[in-house]
Amino acid sequence: MTTSTYGAGTLPKEVRSRMIHGVNGLDVHILEAGYESPGRPLALLLHGFPDLAYGWRHLIPILADAGYHVVAPDQRGFGRTTGWVNGYDAPLESFSLLNMTRDALGLVSALGYRRTAMLVGHDFGSPVAAYCALARPDVFPSVVLMSAPFPGPPAFPFNVAEGEPSSVQPSAGNQGLAAALAALDPPRVHYQQYLSTRQANDDLWHPPQGLHAFLRAFFHVKSADWPGNKPHPLKAPTAIELAQMPTYYVMDLGKTMSQTVAPFQPSAAEVSACKWLTEPELGVYTEEYGRMGFQGALMAYRVFSDPALNAELRLFSGKTIDVPSLFIGGTSDWGTYAAPGALDLMRAKAATRMRGIELIEGAGHWIQQEQPDRLGMLLLGFIKDAGGADHASR
Predict the structure, then answer these.
(1) InterPro entries attached here (predicted)?
(2) Most-buried pick from 123, 232, 308, 393 (CB within 10 A)?
């Protein structure tokens, strides 16, 4: 697979597409730049939903020009990476956070590196990156989390030996919140619950307006281009508080995601003015998701609500991220506040060497596409401060 056969001519000329075989059971599709010169420090970029390695295309050359070997994989379940089972009834274990952490570790090793100089995770890539730094700080000696704050791993109850045993089940909180959202007027449903349903893949894959138009509206409404995004902290994870978020986060019950974003379809003039995601670039997303659908990408949302797969994360109960870390959001991105309290927990407890929380003006959720130059400056400044540029060893 070469640049000429991926991206329909939209990739920057210095970025190539290729496959890495036998990585934790996967054949991983990556985009990379800076590969020509041996010995460069490795920058690993992990995307979220419904993104691809392609979402980093504007940032990859910036980091390569600064001296890095930059690698962005299609994560398990996404794009051209293969080796996972595509189906709603496929076992969830392979999509667990810890296995996707192993995917990242295996990729670093397959590329011939002992450690990364830069690890960046966006959206769902953020918790994957967080567990990389939590579990293997020797391999991932710094971490940048984008759009999704990390509140820390689930913890065992502390100092409760003399108390009465609790009858509360781990999933009871989610069930109670779902019931409370459904009881609102009008009834609402959290987008993660909707995306966990059996019909979500077909809804997204075959929307009434067509896949390309749906993706255009989805990218638009979650960006700084949509004036309705005015995020602010929420007081608590209650139905009333969460219902303040736009309907693409807390949906009207009974509506699909394509129906939810359809009223926000940008005009032809707005599409033409969108330089961070041109029509040919959006066409790459349309082609990739049109070919495979969304089920593999949606499995992560089902993992979040699986008690057994959350239980295995308690291996890290009480453990903190002790490598230098940075959080980056967009001033128009609700992701920073979508989990009430997570930002404060990350800052105060979960990450002991946090260098800051940066919110980029003119960026919504798609920071690396909307404001790649500003993002690149922040990443390079952070790594210089953290000493990560010295971690070049293979």
Answers:
(1) AB_hydrolase_1 (IPR000073), AB_hydrolase_fold (IPR029058), Epox_hydrolase-like (IPR000639)
(2) 123
Task: Give the Cα separation of 55 and 73 in Å (integer).
Answer: 10
pLDDT tens for each residue of 342-391:
999 999 999 999 999 999 999 999 999 999 999 999 999 999 998 755 54
Residues 311-333: tens digit of each pLDDT: 999 999 999 999 999 999 999 99
- Ramachandran category for residue 351: left, alpha or beta (phi over 0 → left; psi -120 to 50 → alpha): beta
Amino acid (1-letter code) at residue 253: L
| Number of folded domains that form the chain | 2
Single out the residue in 299, 332, 367 at which a domain terminates.
Answer: 299
Contact status, residue 120 vs residue 46, Cβ threshold 8 Å: yes
Which CATH number covers residue 24? 3.40.50.1820
Distance of CA 82 to the CA centre of its chain: 19
From the DSSP assignment, how many helices (H) and strands (E) are in the chain? Answer: 16, 10
The answer as to whether 87 is a domain residue is yes
Q: What is the CA radius of gyration of the chain?
A: 20
**In-domain check, residue 225:** yes
